[in-house]
């Protein structure tokens, strides 16, 4: 009988997230976009978001998690997409950050502490479009990998 077995059941338990991953991702994106916009407003800069670019960033986040989980770099599809997306005089800068928790209030301090993000935050409003994308990947036993990718496309210097 299975219940009287002298061996422990070592199968990982799959505990779902409290809501769908997509709902959590949208919430993270909305909250961080508001913080980014407020940060730039405080510096006297307007902020323009590019929803199409935000959608394209999903490809990069899939590659980031694949590389984190397997140690194997993803394909070059994202780079090919960005070469076609950006104009001849434009440059894409993107900063992916991975978290192992859903404490969204901790995300902005970690993001804004990075030199590349500080450079993006100071970019001129007229020539820069921002994009944010989040991806939540649930794993067994309540473990999550949360990716946040902040990107900006602007004129090259």
Could you characterize what this model shows?
It is a single chain. The chain is 41% helix and 21% strand. It is built from five helices and three strands, in the order H-H-H-E-H-H-E-E. Strands 1-3-2 form a three-stranded antiparallel beta sheet, with helices on both faces.
Strand composition percent: 15-25%
Molecular shape:
elongated
The percent range for helix content is: 40-55%
Quantity of strands, as a count? 3
Question: What is the average of the pLDDT values?
Answer: 87
The profile of the biggest β sheet is: 3 strands, antiparallel
Number of helices: 5
Please write the string of helix (H) and strand (E) elements: HHHEHHEE
> Regions with pLDDT < 50 over 5+ consecutive residues?
none
- Write out the strand line-up for the largest beta sheet, numbering strands in chain order: 1-3-2
Provide the structure class.
Answer: alpha+beta
The Cα radius of gyration reads 19 Å
Query: How many angstroms separate the termini?
Result: 71 Å
